[in-house]
C-alpha cells in the first residue's frame, strides 16, 4: 500500500526535552521528523504530537517546535497514545486511515502506540530514521516487531514522494524547491 | 499484539548449571532473565522454570535462582516442554495465553518449546537477549524460525513497559525505582 | 512462485542520464540490468523502459540503450508507472502476469511502480542488484517494503535459470555461451 | 512446525564434483550435509541425492559419497528436481511430507527444487549451512526467497534434536555418542 496525502496523519510521539539527551541518535531523529513535518504542513497533512507526563519529562523539544506549522499536542499517561480516549476519538474524527509514526522511545511509546493503531485498523507507517531509543538495538527490534504486526517501514523521502504523487504540479515544484533540493548535495534538480 | 500483565507467564527454559559454561553469552542471558523475573514477581506474573534431565545437566544455575521470587520448576525429558503432559495441563489451567520464553539452548529446547506453544494456540514472545546457544548463529536462526512461525521477538524493556501499561500508578513508581532506574546510567528519571 | 519465460516482462524504471550520476551503485545496476536484458531479448521476453519527465531528467542512459534489443519506452509524469493509463492498458494487453522490476530510484519510482503492480494483481520480482537509490539505505528499505507487500527479491542469475528451465536445449546452450559463461571467471562450463 | 523423523526426507541437490571447486563454502556445506546424513541413516530417514546432467558436471562428490549410508540418486535435466516425473512420483510414494533440502547452487537448483516442493504441498526445511552458491550473496537471497515462499531455515543441529525428540532413549545415546558429542569441543556431555 502506498501513502496518500488525503489519507495521512503525521504522528510524532514524545519528542520531549527530558528524554532526548539520553536517546542515541535523538537529534538526527528530530531533524528528520522536522523535515517531513515541513512538507506535511505544505500539503495540509495534519501534524499531531504527544507528550508523556510532561510535568516530569518536559514539553516537546524546541528543536522540533521551532518553525513547526499548525499542529495539535496530546498529553498522555499511558505509554500508548491509543489508550487515551480523547486522542483516539479525535483521530477517528479525522477520517484518515494512514498514520506515519515517529518519535521516542521506539520500543516503548512509539511501539505501543503503533501496535494500538494497528489493532484499531489503521495503516501504520514506521518512519525509521525519525524513531529512536536509548539503545539502537531496541529501536531496531521495535521496528521489526511493528512490521511483523503489519506496520510498514518507510523513509521520509518515500513518504514525501508518495504524498506528492506526480511531478508536474505547482505543489511539487514548491516542495522540491523548499525541501527536496536543499536536503542533499545530491538532490536531483528537477525529478 | 501487546503484552498484558494479567495474561502473561514468564517461562525460563533450561538455565542449567551444566549447560551454561558452554553457552556463548550465557551469563548475560541469565542476567537479563533475572531482571525481568524481578519485575514479574512484583506484578504477580507467574514464573516457570524447566530443567532438562537434571540428573545429568544439573539444576537451575544459582545466578538465576538466587533472589528469584516465587516460581515453579518443571523437569522434562523431551526437548520441548510441551511434550510433557503435566506441564501442558498446568499451563492450560493458568488461563494465561501470553508466554514470554527465554533460556538455553535457543535452537533446541527453547525453539521446540516455542513451536509447541504456538501450535497449542499460545501467543509466544521470544525474549531475544535472554536466549542463547553455544553458537550465536544458531540463536539467531532459532529466533528467526520462531518468528516465522508466529512468535514475536521482544526485549525485557518492552515487556516491562507493556506490563506496566501507564506511568501514574504506585506500581510503576515502585518498579521504576527498583528495576528501571538502576538498570542503566541513561535511565529516564521519571518517564 | 518461480518465473516463467512465457509469463514474464522485464520492466526497467527511469535509468535516465540525469539521475545516474547521483545514484550510489548506478553503473553496476545498469550493467546488471543490461546483462539480463540481453537474455530477455534472446528468450522473447518483452523489455519495457520508463522515463520520468525526460525533458528534465534526460532520456535513458546510453550505457543501457547501446546494444539493447527490441524494447518499448514509456514516458511518465507520475512517480508510479501504474498511474499512467496507456502503460497499464498496454501491460494488461500483454497478458503476462510476472513483472521483473529494476531501475532508479529504488525508493521512489521503482517502489511506487512495484506497489502499484502488486495492487493490480501482478507478481512482482525485485531485481535487487539492478535497483539503486542515492542512498543505499533507501534502496534496502525499498526492497524490504516491496517484499513485505508481496514482491520477491531476485538476482539476475535466478531469473535467467528460471526462464531457461532446463539445460538440454539449444536455447540454453546459446544463452550459456553468450551470457552465463562470460559473466564470471567462476562460470560453470556446462551446467 | 517441528520436524518429525517419521515424516522426513533428506534431499541433497547436485553436490557434484564439477560444481564444487567454484562454490564459495562448498567444502563446509558438504561436511555439514554429510554429518546430518549420518544421523539420517541412523534414524532411517531416507537420503536422496540429485545430479544435474552428470555427463557434464560429474557425479556426486566423493567427499559426500564416502561413508554415506543407503541412499538413492536421481539424475535430472531440469534445474528443479520437481520437474522430473520419476522423482516426484517416487517422492509422493514415500508418503513423507517434510523435506530437508541442501546442496548447490543455492539460488538455482536448490531454490527451484524448494519452490517446486512448496508448490506441491511439502513442508520444506532449508539447511542453511549445507547450501551454497558461487556468490554467498546469492545463497543468502535464495534462502530469503525460499523462506518468503514458506520454507523454514534450519541448522543441522536443529534437525537432529527434533528428529531425536527426547533424551532418554537408546537412540539418543547412540547418536549423541557418535555424532553430537564429537562435533564440537563444546558439546554438552549428556543433554
TrEMBL record, chains A, B, C, D:
Residues 8-157 form the Isochorismatase-like domain. This is Hydrolase. It comes from Vreelandella lutescens. InterPro entries: Isochorismatase-like_dom, Isochorismatase-like_sf, Isochorismatase_domain. The keyword Hydrolase applies. Keywords: Hydrolase. Pfam families: Isochorismatase (PF00857). GO terms for molecular function: hydrolase activity. The keyword Hydrolase applies.
